[in-house]
Amino acid sequence: MNNLDFMNKFKPDTRCIKEFEHWIVCIRKKQATLGDAVILLKRETPSVADMLPEEAVEFPKVIKWYEEVCIKKFGAAKFNYIIMMMKDYFVHYHAFPRYDKDINLFGIEWKDIDWPRAVDFKGGIELDEDKLKEIRDYMSK
């Protein structure tokens, strides 16, 4: 990984699920839904409009990988993506797999309480680093 100090809040060194040439996918500490992640551009830039063409071209590949993993491993039915950059002034997307049924994995009963409405990502389950590592490792295999 290059110098990713600007995104340390998301702990890419320990929470990285998968790294691409221009993007990194990290598990979020607070899981609004199972597999909740943040997709971070590996270059510090404050605006989506400042993305380079090669970064934009790779982004659909990142999304395709993420969705395929969440569908195959967890049975995700839909996906929500949110880009706000209100507190963190660099390009990143919050990614939420959505579920139309409850899932029992990792010793947790996962309920998508907002289904079928838009996800409320302020809620969710705050997990310790060991549980995050378990989910991250399961997603990255």
Mind explaining what this structure looks like?
This protein is α+β, with helices and mostly antiparallel strands and 141 residues long. The chain has one domain: HIT-like (HIT family, subunit A, 2-Layer Sandwich), CATH 3.30.428.10. 27% of the residues lie in helices and 26% in strands. The chain has three helices and nine strands; from the N terminus they run αββββαβββββα. It has helices spanning 12-15, 53-74, 129-140, and strands spanning 16-19, 23-27, 30-31, 37-41, 78-82, 92-98, 103-105, 108-110, 125-126. It has a five-stranded antiparallel sheet. A two-stranded antiparallel ribbon has the order 3-9. The protein is globular and about 40 Å long. The mean pLDDT is 93.
Quick recap of the structure?
The protein is α+β, with helices and mostly antiparallel strands and 141 residues long. 27% of the residues lie in helices and 26% in strands. It has a single domain, classed as 2-Layer Sandwich (HIT family, subunit A).
Strand order of the largest sheet: 1-2-4-6-5
Biggest β-sheet description: 5 strands, antiparallel
The CATH architecture comes to: 2-Layer Sandwich
> What structural class should be given to the helix and strand makeup?
alpha+beta
Strand content: 25-35%
Number of domains: 1
Please report the first level of CATH classification, the CATH class.
Alpha Beta
Please work out how many helical segments DSSP would assign.
Answer: 3
Number of separate strands: 9
CATH-defined fold name: HIT family, subunit A
Encode the helix/strand succession as letters. Answer: HEEEEHEEEEEH
